[in-house]
Inverse folding.
DNA sequence: AAGATGATGACTCCAATG
DNA sequence: CATTGGAGTCATCATCTT
């Protein structure tokens, strides 16, 4: 029944190694530590494929580092999701373009196609007049003055604080290396090996160079067993990748349409996600056979990480068969097989097993835990001394980056996010320490954390301060002082009517009976209701939500935006004061202003935060799928008399290296890359599709990483 | 067509309890 | 240490109404 500890830790460490190896395949990731379990040939192949191995002939800069799992899988399953409904998912949703079914087609896409969806806003001083409509107190003082179009600070912040160029790429690469060289380095080969290979073979034959590099890689690890087998696998998979874009296309489409024909059947829990995982695993370099066996054994609901675990474990157990003895493996397989019939993912047994695994681990293998209290590296009210953190070298900017998502994600999600984002420890913060509403979020960033300061004026800290008119009607038995998380839906009028009737029934008494109190308070907490009259509760108005989240009043109002859309956009947004506190350290680093790449911009929480901090926005490239949200931000941009340039793009998936390089060439690179990718597949409120990081929308996280890593690469290449 | 409404649990953490 | 119950969560869908 129990899996042996040996196999468990083996499997887990392999999974971790795999993920680390994946992460490593950017020019900023340090090499695997010598002590780490080696898994090189597989990793090389895996990552090479994920990197878009085959188009060696393509311009290096156009290469995406890591296609998200859904990129190909999404359109291969013609669900009902086209752009129209996709846009409704929320401010950070992103529809899948059928044209982007395959990486290859992506690469060959005319960059102008993306440009066509883009429009330029407000060049220079052509901004709209007055900011009278904007309603925060310090608006006037904060308006940026004396804007000088200096680009001197665009690449290197003046302070040496956290800036120590990313070692590997800048040390020997310099600017003299060819694009080919850079491409191989990006793939994860050491500069030494690449130099050696190119010297031996010359630049004319990339395929031969690749062969050599793979050979070196194998030779490097030859003292250990198993490598002979693996080298064979490498070859095979290189071949696979050669016809990867042509041969597979048809079959994938056929398969998916077949699936679709019985997808309505209730026995099939989630065929498309199964297929997705199959594709993802084959992308990772496993054979289709391995992948489908894993899915069959682990069940249709196993995560990709679990499936990878399984395959690794199976491979290792196969190889270690002679050593371990024959009775161990069947146990392992049996255990995994048990999960096949589970109706829901992350079953208890699995969770317990995982928990058990983690207990066996130590040191940095600990899973990420949420802090209690959730104050991150410090909040304004708290005067504890901040321990200076040490960032992994690969994480150090430029550029700075800042990533956000819900703190209460399913287990393992933050471990994955952290691993991809250069092993930076997430900072979990509840906005209730900044304002009158809770908002538990995780932030992964490489910003300095000393000398932060809060936005002024400080926002109201309690419900009564934020909504003074409610104080009069607030009963003593409602002890809330902070609101719960503001979400995308509000309580209905019918609900508040029911509550009113329940309360009126006990109007003569001094207090309603405990049962009624409990009912009312439960509903209040669930729907964030506030007291607006005798026995009268009401959901928050959109402008109250704006205020609580730190946006100017009427930020989301007007211009054809419906009330429902306002709630939705606001519910998906940053809490400005919280984010601004973290970003405040940029003010002295970039006195002349910053160039900003804002992914999943939504209604512009990042831009508003920086603006309120008094940090001039020089060049802002904002990517946002929802037209409604783009309109909101464009309107804000004009109303606040911005002096910089705003470039709006629609789809993060279409932002490739070419386009990025083109944008960066025009103003010298980004100082900050900020974004919170879609949370809807992670959020607890989602009963329907809480699929984790591999979910349809939430998997766009990998695009955040892809783009961030591209920018890092482009910037380290030097312009 | 857009808005309003109600129905739809699971997962995770944590404090209290035994 | 294991168990239990409470609390909270950037949501989605079908259906009805306006």
């Amino acid at each position: 029944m129990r899996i042996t500890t040996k196999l468990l830790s083996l499997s887990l460490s392999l999974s971790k190694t795999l993920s680390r190896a994946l992460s490593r395949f950017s020019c900023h990731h340090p090499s695997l530590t010598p002590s780490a379990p080696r898994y090189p040939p597989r990793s090389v192949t895996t990552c090479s494929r994920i990197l878009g191995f085959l188009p060696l002939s393509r311009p290096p800069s156009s290469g995406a580092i890591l296609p998200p799992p859904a990129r190909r899988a999404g359109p291969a399953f013609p669900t009902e999701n086209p752009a129209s409904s996709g846009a409704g998912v929320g401010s950070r949703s992103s529809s899948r373009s059928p044209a982007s079914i395959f990486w290859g087609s992506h690469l060959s896409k005319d960059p102008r196609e993306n440009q066509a969806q883009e429009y330029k806003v407000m060049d220079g001083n052509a901004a709209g007049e007055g900011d009278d409509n904007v309603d925060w107190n310090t608006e006037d003082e904060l308006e940026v003055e004396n804007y000088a179009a200096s680009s001197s600070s665009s690449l290197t912040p003046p302070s040496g604080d956290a800036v120590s160029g990313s070692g590997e790429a800048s040390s020997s690469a310099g600017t003299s290396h060819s694009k080919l060289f850079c491409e191989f380095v990006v793939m994860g080969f050491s500069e030494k090996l690449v130099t050696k290979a190119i010297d031996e073979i010359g630049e004319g034959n990339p395929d031969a160079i690749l062969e050599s590099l793979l050979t070196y890689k194998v030779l490097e690890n030859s003292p250990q067993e198993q490598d002979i087998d693996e080298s064979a696998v490498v070859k095979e998979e290189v071949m696979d990748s050669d016809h990867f874009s042509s041969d597979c296309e048809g079959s994938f489409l056929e398969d998916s349409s077949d699936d679709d024909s019985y997808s309505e059947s209730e026995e099939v829990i989630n065929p498309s996600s199964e297929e997705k995982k199959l594709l993802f695993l084959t992308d990772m370099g496993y054979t289709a056979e391995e992948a489908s066996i894993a899915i069959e054994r682990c069940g249709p609901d196993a995560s990709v990480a679990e499936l990878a675990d399984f395959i690794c474990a199976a491979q290792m157990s196969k190889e270690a068969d002679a050593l371990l003895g024959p009775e161990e493996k069947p146990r392992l397989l049996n255990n995994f097989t048990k999960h096949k019939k589970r109706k829901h993912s992350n079953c208890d047994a699995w969770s317990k097993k995982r928990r058990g695994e983690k207990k066996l681990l130590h040191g940095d293998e600990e899973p990420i835990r949420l802090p209690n209290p959730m104050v991150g590296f410090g909040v304004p009210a708290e005067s504890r001394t901040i321990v200076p953190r040490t960032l992994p070298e690969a994480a150090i900017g430029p550029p700075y980056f800042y990533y956000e998502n819900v703190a209460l994600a399913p287990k393992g999600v933050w471990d994955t996010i952290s691993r991809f984002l250069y092993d930076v420890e997430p900072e979990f913060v509840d906005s209730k320490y900044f304002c009158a509403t809770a908002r538990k979020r995780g932030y992964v960033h490489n910003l300095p954390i000393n000398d932060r300061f809060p936005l002024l004026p400080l926002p109201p800290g309690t419900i009564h301060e934020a909504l003074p008119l409610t104080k009069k009607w607030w009963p003593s038995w409602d002890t809330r002082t902070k609101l719960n998380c503001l979400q995308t839906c509000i309580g209905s009028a019918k609900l508040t009517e029911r509550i009113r009737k329940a309360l009126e029934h006990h109007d003569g008494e001094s207090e309603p009976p405990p049962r009624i109190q409990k009912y009312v308070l439960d509903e209040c907490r669930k729907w964030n209701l506030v007291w607006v009259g005798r026995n009268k509760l009401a959901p928050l108005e959109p402008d109250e939500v704006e205020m609580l989240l730190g946006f100017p009043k009427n930020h989301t109002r007007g211009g054809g935006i419906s009330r429902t859309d306002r709630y939705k956009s606001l519910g998906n947004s940053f809490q400005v004061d919280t984010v601004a506190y973290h970003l405040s350290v940029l003010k002295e680093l970039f006195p002349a202003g910053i160039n900003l790449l804002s992914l999943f911009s939504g209604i512009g929480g990042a831009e508003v935060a920086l603006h309120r901090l008094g940090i001039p926005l020089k060049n802002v490239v904002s990517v946002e799928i929802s037209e409604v949200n783009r309109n909101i931000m464009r309107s804000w941009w004009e109303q606040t008399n911005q002096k910089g340039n705003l470039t709006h793009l629609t789809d993060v998936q279409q932002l490739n290296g070419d386009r990025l390089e083109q944008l960066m060439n025009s103003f010298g690179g980004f100082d900050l890359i900020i974004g919170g990718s879609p949370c809807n597949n992670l959020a607890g409120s989602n009963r329907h599709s809480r699929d984790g990081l591999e979910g349809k929308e939430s998997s766009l996280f990998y695009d955040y990483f892809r783009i961030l890593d591209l920018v890092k690469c482009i910037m380290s290449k030097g312009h």
Remarks:
- The beta strands of chain A are 119-121, 400-406, 427-430, 440-445, 530-533, 536-538, 594-599, 617-623, 645-649, 672-676.
